[in-house]
Design a protein that fits this description.
The protein has 272 residues and is mainly alpha-helical.
Length: 272
């Protein structure tokens, strides 16, 4: 859409809003987005349509046209229009976390839980936020959130995986291994998940079970090598969709490094 065209629409929207006809402005906003896929005039023109702002945010955050800045503006507009819109604060928290704004992310995820207490998926994202922070008590809070989420969604692998991550960070390696064992029992196709095998290997390596760790990392490597960037984007909310290729490459590199450590530990142990 030409800049001059949508500026005229924006001016028209101001006039309509002043006249108490903001519904017409929202119709202009919907047309601007549906016909031209241009978020700027759509967000300027929209005054009451929080769902439209959410749709724009989701387009730039989850459909392939990844632009965190545009997604952020859209989600911010959505929660300004309707502070209780489902997923609004949740998605905004994810964007803030990926931008390194953990304090803002935590505020937004708490707002989602307050506005929509039935959305317990919020617990998972809050656990991630706590897990990446270094404030006193954050790891304990993360563990609690992941335990609550896993109890609520016992068939979803991500809760088990990140609970094991936090337990390993806290030095609770046996508990971490037990959590992954539970995931293998409860999660459909859990044994085909490279994240779970890598987390199990980390726990085993720190427990001194080097042969088992090497086997777990080897399985993780085989499965991770079969992943595509699309798999990475869709895996779970902790992954940044804007950097699927880089994130997947870093994951594979971490597994290779872990496998090398496990094999080296086996050799060192055999020498003594």
């Amino acid at each position: 859409m030409a800049r001059g065209v949508w500026l005229k629409w924006a001016l028209a929207a101001v006039v309509l809003a002043a006249a108490g006809l903001s519904a017409f402005s929202d119709e202009f906003a919907k047309l601007a987005w549906q016909r031209y896929q241009n978020p700027t005039p759509a967000l300027i023109l929209s005054h009451r349509n929080a769902e439209l702002a959410m749709a724009i945010g989701n387009f730039y955050f989850g459909s392939g046209s990844y632009d965190l800045a545009r997604a952020k503006r859209a989600y911010e507009k959505a929660v300004r229009i309707d502070p209780k819109i489902f997923w609004g604060h949740y998605q905004l928290a994810r964007v803030y976390q990926m931008q390194g704004r953990s304090r803002d992310a935590l505020q937004e995820i708490d707002r989602e839980l307050e506005a929509n207490p039935e959305n317990l998926r919020t617990l998972y994202v809050r656990g991630l936020i706590y897990g990446f922070r270094n404030d006193p008590g954050d790891l304990e809070r993360a563990e609690d959130d992941f335990r609550r989420f896993t109890a609520w969604a016992p068939k979803e692998w991500a809760g088990y995986n990140d609970l094991a991550w936090i337990l390993s960070k806290r030095g609770k390696y046996r508990e971490a291994a037990d959590v992954i064992a539970a995931a293998f029992r409860e999660v459909p196709d859990g044994r085909e998940n490279p994240w779970l095998w890598n987390s199990l290997g980390v726990a085993q390596l720190n427990l001194g079970e080097h042969a088992s760790a090497a086997a777990s990392f080897g399985r993780a490597q085989t499965l991770a090598d079969a992943l595509t960037p699309a798999d990475w984007r869709e895996a779970y909310p902790g992954n940044n969709p804007a950097d699927a290729g880089g994130g997947l490459a870093a994951f594979r590199a971490a597994i290779r490094e872990n496998l090398a450590r496990a094999k080296s530990a086996r050799v060192d142990r055999a020498r003594f």
